[in-house]
What does this fold into?
Amino acid sequence: MPLQPLDATLQETFRERMDPAIFSLPDIGYLQEPRGRYTGTSPLLARPRDLFEVVTLVKLANEMDVGIVPYAGGTGLVGGQVMVDGPAAMLLSVERMNRIRDVDARDNVLVCEAGVILADVQAAAAAADRLFPLSLAAEGSARIGGNLATNAGGVQVLRYGNARDLCLGVEAVLPDGTVFNGLKRLRKDNTGYDLRHLLIGSEGTLGIITAASLKMFPAARERATALVVVEDPDAALTLLNIMRDHVDDTITAFELMSAEGYRFLAEKVPDAPQPFAEIPAWSVLVELGSGHGGRLEERLMAALEAAMSKGVIDALIAQSEGQRQDFWAVRERIPEANRLIGAISSHDISVPVSKVPEFIKRTGPLLMAMGADIRINCFGHLGDGNLHYNVFPAKGGDRSEYEGRYKAIKDCVHEVTDALGGSVSAEHGIGRLKTGDLERFGDPGKLLAMRAIKRALDPKGLFNPGAVLRV
Amino acid sequence: MPLQPLDATLQETFRERMDPAIFSLPDIGYLQEPRGRYTGTSPLLARPRDLFEVVTLVKLANEMDVGIVPYAGGTGLVGGQVMVDGPAAMLLSVERMNRIRDVDARDNVLVCEAGVILADVQAAAAAADRLFPLSLAAEGSARIGGNLATNAGGVQVLRYGNARDLCLGVEAVLPDGTVFNGLKRLRKDNTGYDLRHLLIGSEGTLGIITAASLKMFPAARERATALVVVEDPDAALTLLNIMRDHVDDTITAFELMSAEGYRFLAEKVPDAPQPFAEIPAWSVLVELGSGHGGRLEERLMAALEAAMSKGVIDALIAQSEGQRQDFWAVRERIPEANRLIGAISSHDISVPVSKVPEFIKRTGPLLMAMGADIRINCFGHLGDGNLHYNVFPAKGGDRSEYEGRYKAIKDCVHEVTDALGGSVSAEHGIGRLKTGDLERFGDPGKLLAMRAIKRALDPKGLFNPGAVLRV
It folds into this structure.
């Protein structure tokens, strides 16, 4: 039986069989993805208040063969939360399931429902003198269920890992309405297949995560932050390894920035700090954090000194919290400048860390050969091999003039990525934007297995139809 | 079609269709598990030399409906590698696939085949001035493919995670002969379902891991090691949190030991060190590691001082490498003493870290109430909430006299574990020993999903029949 469009009659059935207060017509905010790439259509928004209501919704959807698009904060960048074609489906938002159930400083565990906003998770951990390290631009509106469903990354992955590494257990509703009660708080549990890891990153196609138990960490007692000018990405990589040798896992951030980022800020965000008199071709924002007595500044200096003959040109070390925030503002406002300029094509790629310099060396000239009237702003999480590699019009140009080149640019970036053993989606996921890329670049064996798993857990294809796997 | 016993005719077919040099009759070493709990039967041992031969074996097994038991180092403690009943199956050992393909210090990645012995992986990393942190008693004979298949734990999990956390990618053969080419070296890759995490810990029931790319870390430049006497497990836990506040992720080991462990050593391993004049009721082996300039001893002292009024009674800090090794010898020789005494029942349980004291307080009296003629040696990875909780005969007694009490003791330990939200297999897995426990204590939703996944990827039930899931 194919999926049925959620027409007026079927909508009526939902309203009759459940508390109608949980249903409404979704306003436009639910249907647009943040970069304006897609506008979806959905005739019905369900906002269940607890696990039981989610189960009931899923069972009814099953009975009527109606698709469900799970929705958390709506901040995903690949259209995983926005359905644009296929039989009209229900939007299921977890926003009302937003209780923090427990914060246990002794266990270093926080248990919360899927609809809690990421910044609220961070704040609850901080209130218990602990750190929840997942940190990303959209943290003020992203919800933890979506962060887990997409295995979100961000600026502290180098030390703490992706969202999946921060999660001890999940509670989830599977496509047949079965509840997976996996909210354990265990650091070790080798009892059968790791369903948690299968659900995390499956983008709502295998289950709806309704709650999670999350790892907390000691809050940093000391910090040291530097903006380091390096000769080139190769020197940045050398610096990373020297730093690790000195300060090891205390490195919480290692963010590469190119001159174009600073220029974009100067052009579009003039109130953003410009810490250097002359914009450096390449620079790295480094931050360390530790417990008491870590003497991080001293050790950071020692590491920088050891790197001085190896491509480190200059370094500013933050002398105050204000200066630290200025350094971070450079990194964090680059995406804002990017948006104001308007990218022709944005890429979230990863390659093995050691291949980052080669990736940059190869890709730029290839793109320039297609027409030099572009600007490339390459920045990102060097320690993870993850670059945000974005292509923009020449100064004064408009992205609309470049529409015809979008595909060629995207293909070029993805082909170099693939040739270097990389990934065309490092942290944003597949959603609906990259289903074709997954088919093209994904391992065929993996695709076969993914399809078999999808069929096994969701034979009707009810959950997030068209996302991740088209068929 | 049910599985066919691998009789002489079918064996002949294998030998005819492939190079017969890879087949032999398995000697007894392959058929016994280390604790002597099971002796398996298998009429044919295959020792393929490369991926292609594994694929061919799997395809032939498929054609003939013959089961395959994957075999790595044979050191598992739950019978996952030993088939005792059901239609005779082929033993497939990866021991000849033992090449280290690459050690890349810049990427901090090591790529090797599944048959490489764990100690050899560690040594190859060390030769590149790096650390591969997976470390456990059987490292001299365990093979990395088995460590991954069972998601092995060990003594450095607190800082570095389980085997799954140390693995960036796997190459594996699925039950239909499909190759999953997932040997990426990426720190971030959000392209579809995480098949790697599904295979890791599935104990050879979903795929045969043939190679892996592994994470390396900076080698420790400084270390500090202490044996700390604490009032009770509660005080040990308080110490752990104070330590984390001071030295954070530099804690590489935090191992709890009870007086019984020291007494067992005195009784059965008299050449083992006894660092204390009087055996402490409870003690913790703490080790820290860091990069250059970590001043670990100083910071360790500060943390211990902060804990002095909170249940820390005494502490010995290793003043030399020799003393450090003595401290470790206490911890590492306890399993040897245990073996010499002979446990009635051994348990590898985990509970939320904060529940460890309660677990200990509740379980002992319950067991004693069944008959006080027992001794309990409880030790393990407190930082992970993982205890090896082993029950022994009274001094001079023999385990054979206690056979009738085995089940009651096991059930009691597992029931308390379950009541505290714990796991009846923290690091050893399910294998064939604990299939009943999984059925009893596992989440029903998880079991349903596991069965659906098993059917989807291995509809004939060829891979490791009877392990993890009985049906």
